[in-house]
Amino acid sequence: MRILYVVGTRPNFVKTAPVIGALRARLPAGRHALVHTGQHYDRLMSDVFLEELGVPAPDYMLEVGSGSHAAQTARTMERLEPVLLEEKPDLVIVPGDVNSTLAAVLTAVKMDIPVAHIESGLRSFDMTMPEEVNRIVADRFAEQLFLHSEEAIGNLRAEGIPEARMHMVGNTMIDTLVALEERFRSAGTAARLGVEPGSYALVTLHRPALVDGPLLAETVARLAALAAEMPVVFPVHPRTRKMMESVGGEHPGLLLSEPLGYLDFLSLLADAGAVLTDSGGIQEETTYLGIPCFTLRDNTERPVTISQGTNTLLGLRPERIREIPDLIAEHRGDGRRVPEGWDGHAAERVADVLSL
Ligand code: UD1
What span, in angstroms and rounded, lies between the C-alpha atoms of 113 and 88? Predict the structure, then answer.
């Protein structure tokens, strides 16, 4: 069996690392080739992550870099095609919903190569989100769909996708978290930054809807006001940093940093009093860790993090940041539970299906 894994962004690495590990163990005689598209390319967004996750060095680096959606997707397709011609894989495995995912699915399907999609069936029902388009295309064309929550079944059924293609395996991102737990629990990152565990808000923001327009300046001002009540730790995504620099202004009281490695980030997440984010993966990680999460978006493709987990949707409304101290006080753990299959063994279940 010849398998080609295609990854491009930080969360892709986290979701795919355990799948590569499980399939290598299950199919040791197979070919396992890793392609890094280069959608994320800064050392802090890419190399540091791959090292910490113990992912073997990629066999192919496509170095597509940044660009418009069309340019980034097209460049990836153009550079992936010769790799597929050379490798002749029996299966291409893609995670998540980023432009690299979209490009890999389209390239493979046009060459008649079967695709497996990890984290299938999530829907925000918001077509203005680039990721929503990517998810729909990936699920329409992938032959094997690996689901991490029950709601994905209904979403896929509603699009006419046959159940025979769906496999409920659980959450491979949580596999990585579980595997790193001992290490991040002893990392002591909060202390290194001079903040007390349990006392601070951890912030991440990177989505265009929030950071590419006028909401960014208001969000930063609201965060500065929150910092008067509790420390605010904010590792800044390169996209957000560029936008903050173009808006200018002071950021009094905010503990800003470069993007963090995954162990440092998970350590800060596990010790946070609250998390404010627009990320998808962080809604899941906080649910697993039982940390209150406030999401600055109008919708989420991960409603299980609200119904079962610790997530609250604030809407795309930065003025609601001022409610966070009260909302933390209201937050209760009762009735919260970790969704089924978010248990550290999802990648083994992927391997069960694929090594039959
Ligand atoms: C991408 C994904 C998003 C995912 C996020 C995770 C798409 C459409 N978006 O968003 O779903 O949640 O990754 O982080 O695929 N940049 C750098 N260095 C890097 C990477 C990016 O400076 O290593 C800057 C560039 O200015 C670039 C911008 O960030 O133009 C945006 O990068 P891009 O890959 O287009 O999307 P993300 O915002 O990272």
Answer: 8
SS3 content of the chain, % helix, strand, coil (to 5): 45, 15, 40
Residues involved in catalysis: 206
Please tell me if the CB atom of residue 325 comes closer than 6 angstroms to any atom of ligand 1: no
pLDDT number for residue 112: 98
**Distance of CA 239 from the midpoint of ligand 1 (Å):** 6
Alpha-carbon 162 to chain mean position: 26
101 lines ligand 1 (CB under 6 A): no
Q: What is the pLDDT of residues 47-77, one digit of tens each?
A: 998 999 999 899 999 999 999 999 999 999 9
Token digits for 354?
């694929």
What gap in Å lies between CA 186 and CA 146, rounded to an integer? 32
- Any residues with CB less than 8 A from the CB of 265 and at least 6 apart, and which? 189, 235
pTM, rounded to two decimals: 0.96
Asked if residues 341 and 147 have their Cβ atoms less than 8 Å apart, the reply is no
For residue 69, give the ligand 1 atom closest to its CA.
8
